[in-house]
Structure formats: structure tokens, C-alpha cells
Amino acid sequence: ITHVIAIERCGPSRDGAPRDARGIDITSHNAPLDRLFNGGSWTTIGIGDLGNEIGMGSLPHDLVARHIKGGDALWCRVPCDYPLVGGVSNWAGAALLGAISLLWHRPAESMLDSIRPEFGRRLLEAAVLNGGAVASDRAGGTPRPQLFVDGQPWCVLEQVHREIYDACLHLMRTDRRMLSP
Q1: CB 53 within 8 A of CB 11
Q2: Which residues pair with 152 in a beta bridge?
Q3: Which residues are 47's β-sheet partners?
Q4: Which pLDDT score is estimated for 104?
Q5: What is the structure's pLDDT at 156?
């Protein structure tokens, strides 16, 4: 193992409890993956969008407390080597995969397939329909099964995924030097 990546994975806050976006202690529903994350000499990457995710301990507590509603209680204390913060964690994860695909020449196009909007929709549908995932809309209503992530409807999510995919595909096809060993 050379790298461990945590995407949108709640970790322990200052008081030790992992907290969801509303500040609720989710210890009983959250595996303590921070132990794996910090359990070796591998490179760690934490992807988050709120500050309560594993790896966001690399951000100053006061920054999260000042700029995120409830950030004082939410801030995850677990740091990482490379924190990636995005408006939606899924977008930051897709951008990371796109960047890796541009640097890793052999499986590049097949890796890019994993960030196609159609693939993202299938994953989200499976999480909602088969996995019991729920989400609130932008108004923060009661969480229910729907194609939303972080308050964003699929039509918004799809557009950003499309932009990431198209940018990577364009770079891959126009600058073959990126694909040379």
C-alpha cells in the first residue's frame, strides 16, 4: 500500500465523536477508518467539503469554525498529507481521478470512464435505490431517497462531472506528451 484516500468519510471531531453535517454524533453508524488512515507509512489524501471528514484536520480548526455552520463541533481532528477541499467531495474525487488518468498513460481512457456523468448517475442511483442512501435538498428538508448530493440535484452534479470529464478528455487527446512514460 502506497496511498490511502478518504473521500467524504467522517472522522473524530475534537471531542472524539464523528459528526454528520448537522453535528449529530454518528459513532454507531461510522466505522473508525481513521485508524487505518493513520495506521501506516503510506501517503494520505483526505477529500472533504465541510471539515468533518478524515484529513480535514490539516485545515486550521479556527478556519473551519469561522466559515462552516457548526464548524467548531464538526471539525475532524485527523490530518492528512494532502487535503483536497471541494464544494462537493464527489467533484474533488472526480478531479483527482481525472488528474491521475492524465499522468498514468496506459489505463488513462478506461480510468476516465469512471468519471463520466453516466457512470456517476448509475452509482448514485444504486446508492439511493439499493443502498438506502438519503439526502436533503438545498432547503435542508428531511433527508429522503433522492438523487441529491450535498444539497445539489443531479442536474447540477451532472454538469460539473461533465466539465471535469470533458476537460480531462480534451487534455488527453490534444497533449499526448502527458501520456508519455
Answers
A1: yes
A2: 149
A3: 7, 84
A4: 77
A5: 95
Cell of 38: 493513520
Stated length of the chain: 181
DSSP states of 1-18: --EEEEES-B-BBTTS-B
Give the 3-state secondary structure of residue 83: strand
- The confidence score (pLDDT) of residue 140 equals 72
Q: Enter the pTM of the model.
A: 0.86
Q: Which three cell numbers stand for residue 26?
A: 454518528
Spatial separation of the C-alpha atoms in residues 45 and 59, rounded to whole Å: 13
Contact indicator for 86, 49 with CB cutoff of 8 Å? yes
- Left, alpha or beta for 140 (phi > 0: left; psi -120 to 50: alpha)? left
The cell for 64 is 473551519
Q: What are the cell numbers at 44?
A: 494520505
Q: Mean pLDDT for each 10-residue chunk of the chain (181 residues)?
A: 95 96 93 93 96 97 96 97 95 92 73 88 92 79 87 93 93 67 49
Angle (CA) 163 165 168, round 5° = 105
